[in-house]
Each structure stands twice: as C-alpha cells, then as structure tokens.
TrEMBL record:
PROSITE patterns assigned: EF_HAND_1, EF_HAND_2
One example GO MF annotation: calcium ion binding
Protein's UniProt keywords contain Repeat: yes
Native source species: Nocardiopsis metallicus
Keyword Disulfide bond: no
Domain spans labelled EF-hand: 2-37, 38-72
Source species taxonomy: Bacteria, Bacillati, Actinomycetota, Actinomycetes, Streptosporangiales
Pfam families: EF-hand_7 (PF13499)
The protein's name: Ca2+-binding EF-hand superfamily protein
Length: 72
C-alpha cells in the first residue's frame, strides 16, 4: 500500500469540498482551471480508473495507490 502522506497535499487540492473524496466534477473543475479542456466524460473515466471500490469517487488511499503504481 502506498504511503498516503506522499499524496495528501495533491489530493487536497482536488478535493475542493473537503469531504475526503474526489468526484468527477471536482477533477474536471481542477483540470479546466489549469487550462485543460477535460470533459465531464473524461473526468468520469479517470475516476473509474482510480476507483477500486466502485463508489464513483476516489479516496486518498485509492489516489495514493494509483499514483504510486503509475510513477515513472
């Protein structure tokens, strides 16, 4: 299991409502604020790729696990 502390600050930037979970809307909003043309459908697909428990949201643990697996 990845160390969540390594990813907590980045996770908090995306979790704009502070509920401890990232939804597709939060992800899409961040990407658009960064100048990316991410669609809601693309954000939903990203969430699905990271969501291991099927609740359609990303927890810090899921985020850290995904990020640690996909580092170059």
């Amino acid at each position: 299991m990845a160390d969540t502390a390594d990813y907590a600050a980045t996770f908090a930037l995306v979790d704009t409502d502070g509920d401890g979970l990232i939804c597709a809307q939060e992800l899409a909003s961040l990407m658009r604020n960064l100048g990316d043309q991410t669609t809601d459908e693309q954000a939903t697909e990203v969430v699905r790729a990271m969501d291991s428990d099927g609740d359609e949201r990303i927890s810090l643990e899921e985020f850290a696990s995904y990020m640690s697996r996909n580092q170059n």
